[in-house]
Amino acid sequence: MNSQVNGTTLDSRTAELHDPPGAMVLQPLLRPDAGSAGPRWLPLVLVLGSIAAVAYADHIAVHISLGYLYILPLGVGAMLLRSQISYGLIVVCAFLHDLFAPPYVNWANRIAHNISAMLAFTFVVYIIQRYMKQREQLTKSVRQQRDNLVKDVELAAEVQRMFLPLGKPAIAGLEIAGMMHPARVIGGDYYDYIPIDEHSIQLVIADVAGKGVAAALLMSATAAAVQLEVNQQRDMLQVVSRLNTSIHTVSSDGERYVTLLMAEVDARNRKLRYVNCGHNPALLFRAATGKVTGMNSSCAPIGMILEPPCEVVSVDLFLGDVLVFYTDGVTEAENLLAEEFGMERLSAVVQRGSSLSAEALMDDIFSSAANFSKDVGFSDDVTILVVKCDFDGSLA
After folding, report:
1. Confidence at residue 38, expressed as pLDDT on a 0 to 100 scale
2. Helix or strand or coil: residue 244?
3. Residue 248 pLDDT class (50, 70, 90 cuts)
4. Proportion of the chain above pLDDT 70, given as a percent
5. Which of 70, 128, 215, 388 fits a disulfide with 210 by CB distance 3.0 to 4.6 angstroms?
6. What is the structure's pLDDT at 168?
């Protein structure tokens, strides 16, 4: 409560510093949404000046009445000024109309003419005021819906973050670091590491086709399913098969699918086994040769077809080798020339930073892609997972 009070006081003091003298006096004359784009006295001066101009024109026109022109400033006033002020100006305009009108034949004509003018002015002001009130209510309703939607999206993002790992896994001989940077508040990427025992760990990285709320919901469902499956069954082919059946049931048209790479690293036997379901090829840096090779797909994306042929690929690991898993938000990051960051630049960053720690290399990859696309920004979620092989503990 104290913070709210202090915030209100600070806002009021800030308003006093920035508002011109007399703004607080003039503000009650204006509609809530009027005068925000410029000086607050300007709408009132505009309306009064327009009334004066019409009165002067009505005065110099001797033979005809120009009273109908008062409708213009009254209409503007109805849009900018509060209702009480707008109706008060009707009396002013009716008085000026009567004052500068041509001579009347008799009092009856004069009264009838003034009453008709008053009714016409009131009708115009009433219609415009009613329209403005409806617009204000609509604006308020839209703003409320927008605020509710923002809160819902923020809540969805918070729930989505719950599926991401909170800390680093402690597996002897392995150094692991991961991150996910959504392009929007909520994202369609997911990564996780699930320890099997003190020597082995399963790594998962996934990307839903598409963006927005639909992709985020499907990714949350995928993350929940992955965590449930791997806790019950460690066989990667069976896990992938059940995930594929579940997601294909939800999206039978094949337009919603998930690219997923699931890997199992055994630090004791120095083995890597993986299933790549249409995901970007992970990079394997070989310390012995200094070269980077890709771990390409071994089956179709999850949910695209009902029973995709799948196989587990096995690779030997050696001291100093580095594994880099990522989503296409990294390689498809573009600069102003519409050039993509691409596999070559990513491989060069991995080679250059192979001696860094897993977390430092992850940060280097992200910053390199971010600097490359700094004038454009990321258009897709960016997820990076780095594993360094430190089997005998000699690496930093």
Report:
1. 61
2. helix
3. confident
4. 86
5. 215
6. 82
**Whole-model pTM above 0.85?**
no
Contact indicator for 140, 354 with CB cutoff of 8 Å: no
Same-domain check for residues 209 and 339: yes
Sign of the four-CA dihedral 363, 372, 294, 380 = positive
Chain mean position to CA 117: 52
Residue 81 and residue 172 in one domain? no
What's the rounded Cα separation, in Å, for the pair 305 and 302?
8
Q: How far is CA 373 from CA 243, 332, 369, in A?
A: 34, 10, 6
Which has more confidence, 63 or 282? 282
In a domain, 184, yes or no: yes
Residue 358: band (very low, low, confident or very high) from pLDDT cuts 50, 70, 90:
very high
Q: Are residues 248 and 343 in the same domain?
A: yes
The CATH code of the domain that includes 296 is 3.60.40.10
155-171, pLDDT tens digit by residue? Answer: 777 777 777 788 788 88
Give the span between the Cα atoms of 102 and 173, in whole angstroms: 102
Nearest CA-CA partner of 35 in 51, 52, 50, 47: 47
DSSP-derived secondary structure letter, 361: H
Q: Residues 173, 139: one domain?
A: no
Q: Are residues 261 and 212 in the same domain?
A: yes
Distances (CA, A) of 184 to 156, 218, 330, 340, 378: 12, 16, 15, 20, 9
Question: CA-CA distances (angstroms) from residue 86 to 115, 127, 236?
Answer: 18, 12, 74
Cβ neighbourhood burial of 232 (10 Å; 0-12, 13-18, 19+): exposed
> Smallest Cα–Cα separation from 350: which of 261, 275, 285?
285
Helix orientation angle between 358-372 and 342-352, rounded to the nearest 10 degrees: 140
Q: Give the domain extent around 293.
A: 164-389
